[in-house]
Amino acid sequence: MKAKYFYGYNIVAASFVIQGMSIGSLVTYGVFFKEFQSEFGWSRTMISGASALNYLITGLGGILVGRLNDKIGPKMVITTTGIFLGLAFLLMSFLQEPWQLYLIYGVLAGIGISTTDIITLSTVARWFIKRRGMISGIVKVGTGFGQLVMPLIAVALISAYGWRHSYLYMAAANLAIILVAAQVLRRDPQGMGLLPNGDSHENLAASERTAESGVTLSAALEMKQFWIICMAWFTVFFCLLTIIVHIVPHARDLGLSPATAAGVLSTIGGVSMLGRIVMGTANDRIGGKGSLILCYIVLLCGLIWLQVASNVWMLFLFAAIYGFVHGAFFTVLSPTVAEFFGTLSHGVLFGIILFSGTVGGSVGPLIAGRIFDTTGSYQIAFIVLTGMAAIGLALITLLKPLQKSDS
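RESULT FIELD:
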């Protein structure tokens, strides 16, 4: 018999809040983009460079925090990086020089955000085996909710108080909310005398075997499947994070008001919630490879449409298509890692794959900014994104399930 209330749902709720607050705040960078240009006269390449460094530091930190989560659990790790994130937003309010932007947003905020996906999703993967994809999708809805509301809040704050005070309010909110939510997290159900999914002790042996089975780090590094996923994730982040950084400036270039341009970014966040739930649930049925193939096909359709989107309704349609797949990609990775490699070393393997992605996420926005500064348009950048998505799709078609002898 299952317990009346399973503590794992507290893990889901806390992870939802952490995702929404931290990533929702981070994606407002595109909203502040024009403010930096207006006040300091900085180029888009230079501003994009800080975002690129942020993604790179996030990926590097992710490998370390994934390993720490495997060893000591999530509470202390999230608490520490939550302080870094709040401090970064606090210091952004005093921004004056380019090196400060790179240090504060690139390094400190990168450290602060490095735990968000790896810690929350790796922890959820240990607490839930049945319906793991759907539960991961629910957690990632928190990200979508944050991406929906935070850009609109940022625009309102900037309009009322200016961009510097806006960062002060974001710092206070992140410190208060993330630090409280972090105290709820626990590494795994066994540490609390519980079983995954809230199963009864009659199923103890089977649950324990499933919960912590899988390949070691050294074994995974020798597997072709692991490196295929790493390379594919480079293309995913190259495309997704370039859009997140540059879609608001692009919308402003097309003549949209600041509030409407922020609405495009919020639409991405809003629709991403649907993508997270739909594809998280689909992942439980069709597996990681099938889910990723669908994601890439939708991404390709969206990027092709973006190349002809020249007015408001077309841009919002792109936001809806892209938002769905944005949420889907970030949801299916964690259960896919668990499906292929188990949960024994889930944190560090997830971290390495995300690092591969953040390398792409650091390069993509920088290249797009450089293309715009050189040509005055994002058109070539959008073509490059389409090509990267096609490469990613080709890589995933090569992915084959592990044989029993592999693990």
